[in-house]
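REVIEWER CHECKLIST
Item 1: Sequence provided? yes
Item 2: Single chain? yes
Item 3: Sequence as submitted:
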Amino acid sequence: MLGYLSEQGMEQAKLQWSGRDNHEFLNDPKISDEMKRKVMLVGEYKKFFYHYFGAKKTSIYSKTTMLPNKAVTYLVIASQRTKIEPREFEFPIMGSFPYLGFFKKDSAEAFAAKLNREENLATYIRPVYAYSTLGYFEDRILSSFFHYDDVELAELVFHELFHTVFFIKDEVDLNENLANLYGKELLQAYFKDRPELKRYLEIEEKKSLLSKRVVELIGILQTEFAKLGGFITDEKADILTQRFVTEVFRPDLKAYCLKIQLEESECEIKEEWNQASFAAFLTYEEDQDFLQKLRSQNNFDLKQYLSWLRIEYKKYDDQSEIESFTDYLKIKVPAHAPIAAD
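Item 4: Structure as written out by the authors:
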């Protein structure tokens, strides 16, 4: 673990050292007009975000870093072969995470191979185009941002900035899903009735339906594993998983994408799927309905919801009966609470 922390620390330092002040970046004649436009957009999104919440603006995204690769980091997610459940990696002070991130792709691949070889775990490597250091460092605008269109870039920036105003230690699922919720909702406040938002939301609505279908299908495989219990070996679990992907998962998704008229490029059928990638998908998708229900049943706007979450976290922190803030919040959601329209 010390070797891992040392390497990532060095790579993080390189990101910091290579960052150029945005003013300098924007005045460089070698930089394309499109890249400059995206940097200015990030500044506009940042200004909007902190003004919206009445929060003090931080120095995040005041510099820009050009990366040698398309992605900034690569996450390694691992799972036992007989389960769909991410392996937890623990760190002093920072807590536990259902993945390890690497700045170098070859380091991620080497670590995934080691987990496979030494612990016989299924692994999945997920490229990441943006991330937050949660205030530990001054986050940069990264060249990996530039391949997003304007609406996607706004959602990305709002998502990452949300981590700077609310973050719960040891609860990755909750943090990511709340940031997803806020990122999507803030788009509507920023773009309002502009046509590019309408097009984006139409696609996102279809992708949301697809995500729910993916979760349902993963549940089928989870049920099969649960039925077999301790009688299934790792080898048989792999065979079962690949048969499921080939005979059930991909055909079902292909048909579903046609049904909802979602373009093949936006469909999930091209992804490499195994127990680890299924676990990764659930990490980022499965709790959003619960969080939206929680907001809707209280009729909160985004600012009220954030204030309420902060108050409830203080209440949670003062008690010891419930182990996680996620579970504490779920108790407050009736089983069939309807989602109110905005």
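Item 5: Key structural point noted by reviewer: The chain is about 60% helix and 10% strand.
Item 6: Recommendation: ____
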